[in-house]
Amino acid sequence: MRDLASLVGPKGVQLRQFDTPSDLIQGCLDAAPEVVVIDTAQVSGEHALATLIAELEQRSGVHPRTICIAHEGTMQSRLSALRAGAASYLIAPVSTRRLASRVLRMCGIVETTRYRILIMDRDQAQAKKIATMLATIGMETLVVADPMKILARMQAFRPNLVLMDLDLSGVTGPELTAIIRDHDDFYGIPILFLSAAANLDEQLAALKAGGDGFISKPLARDALIAAVEYRMRMSRWLQDRRTLVNRRETASGFLPRDVFMRHLDQIMNAGASRHGGNALLLVEIDSPQTLFGALGLTATEKFLRELEGLLSTSMAPDESATRMDDFRYALLTKRANVAAVEALAGTLCQQLAGARPKNRDVVLDITVSIGVGRFDPPAEDALAMIARAEKALTGAKMAGGNQVHVWSPRARANGAPQAESVVKRLVSTALAQDGFVLLFQPILALNQQGDEFYEAQIRLQTLDGEQMSPADFLSVAERAEMMPRIDRWVLRRAFEVMSAERSDHPRLRLLVHQSLATLMAAQWFPWFRDELTRHGQTEILPMLQFQMAEIEHNRAEAKALIERLGQYGIEVCVANVSGSREDISLLGRCRVSIAKLSFETLRASERARLAEIIQAFHARGIAVIAPGIDDQASVSRAWTCRPDFIQGSYIEVPKPELSFDFQRISNDA
After folding, report:
1. pLDDT reported for residue 499
2. Inter-axis angle of helices 200-209 and 257-269, to 10 degrees?
3. In angstroms, what CA-CA distances link 483 with 93, 396, 516, 560?
4. What is the pLDDT of residues 122-132, one digit of tens each?
5. pLDDT digit string (tens) for 342-351?
6. Which of helix, strand or coil describes residue 353?
């Protein structure tokens, strides 16, 4: 205890020692522990450990992370401890430094220099077939027949990626993943599940346990190789640093932010989100700077983990949460009805307001505001859903904080869309009061290159904070002849972003939507030259994107316009391309730089046909973007056809900031 105290004491951790389980439970009444270390020799009985952990949680009101020091290292004993609720399992004798490291460690970086693939499948013939397929592309493989020997095999083989069946003999894939994530040497290794199940809840449970993705059964060679290549190349950059930081330490039910956002997109696309009990809660501390000033960085982070524990205790097993930023959390609920959601939000508001930092001689009044975003009527995407909850959250904070506000849709007659006159007025107001915002989604090159390539996507932000997607207002703006003003706003804003971010992002390149009719106006090129001069953009210019339908209807004008843009060094991308012979021939004659395929082309075309389309564009010197990469299946589909770029929410959802780590993927490549 003295040696352990000397290592953890300087970090602000206090130790208390108890001789018996009853003494420990009694001690928790005075001060709820954050970590509990239990010598399993002191806990006898088949279910004694589970009973003790459950009583600790009940008495303390939080979920203390439990480290078991055991005297046997069998897989069955580890599995029993995991199922009892233990967070970590160490074999005695344990060095003091190792135990201190386990208690204190809040982050870790995994560096891998070469890849070996460990394979576990209930069907051994299938596992050997997978190993053979991977061996043909030069990968080392090891097939493990007994899941209970996984840690010993990993110690000897040192894999860089694990492929495992979701349903193994005697243990589930998520359980085995949780044990791997608890190991000092392996908690950052990418894990892909082999699964024939399409059950979203089952897949989410596997992700919560620490899985990185899925490969669907039955396996095809090209899909398997594409998925493994993709994970090997992209596993580190696909997860932000906080993903690995929180592998061990996050509260139960919490997901990395990017996984949470993709899950939010998936349940909305599945069409099941309109149930009245489905909602998105945003929880934000009302006075974060006061909290930070009183506690400092380390104690503030510790207190926030305590709040995460309180959030976790209020969540049902099929609900999930994430930390959105420093002092804000998002919670995706699945309750019986709207009243149950509002009751949950009210309870959270009261519980979190009653939280106090432990072991600190500081008196703080902590309050939170909660915004509830409803899924009905359906939102355009995950960001629009977040905007609904943010609107409600803003209302709660403006009303003084420490309360709950629920988002409600604007009144619509007979459930019809908003009248065109209302949308037109919103667009006019946005143009007059700078009410548009640009979001940025990365476009990832599959071949290594240095550019940071984003698509700039416009949103209309109403005065009450709600965001409208382009589909909800651009057609109205076009009929009202307001597109030239919107196009100029978008291009001007793109210049401002590129100018402001020039030092931090020297190779930034933006793909900017424009209308062909706007550029065909006589005064556009003089205006454009003035903007170039004003912003000093002479080296790296934006790429302009037009719609395929516009090019088809104005073939001669489009060809002349694209040639003139080329004189300024401006390249052109054409979106919603079907890949027909006519499209390929027309874009070749117009000498466009990039063709962005339509979602329908990507989803409906056979893999061989898709590869033919891409090769036909390449033969004409046209690069190809494959958009709509929203899940692992679409990655595998696109990857084997070798487009030049991929884009979609599986890579990253659109964000208001330029935060994607292109450098990291370039290094990994």
Report:
1. 85
2. 180
3. 72, 35, 10, 21
4. 889 999 999 98
5. 889 988 888 8
6. helix
- List helix spans (H) across 170-256: 173-181, 200-209, 221-238, 241-249
Sequence-distant contacts of 219-226: CB under 8 A, at least 24 apart: 219/126, 219/129, 219/130, 219/133, 219/194, 221/133, 222/607, 222/636, 222/640, 223/636, 223/637, 223/640, 224/130, 224/133, 224/134, 225/133, 225/134, 225/137, 225/640, 226/635, 226/636, 226/639, 226/640
- 3-class SS shares of the chain: helix, strand, coil, % to 5: 50, 20, 35
Q: Can you tell me which residue has the tokens 């859903």?
A: 385
User: Six-digit token pair at 216?
Assistant: 């669907």
Task: Burial-class residue 294 by CB neighbours within 10 Å (0-12, 13-18, 19+).
Answer: middle
Residues 6 or more apart in contact with residue 51 via CB below 8 angstroms: 45
How much is the mean pLDDT over the chain?
A: 81
Q: Which residues contact 100 (CB under 8 A, 6 or more apart)?
A: 4, 7, 8
- What is the pTM for the complete model shown? 0.53
Q: How far is CA 569 from CA 356, 543, 560, in A?
A: 60, 9, 15
Question: How many whole angstroms separate alpha carbon 421 and alpha carbon 438?
Answer: 24
> One-letter amino acid identity for 250?
T
Local structure of residue 410 (DSSP, 8 states): P
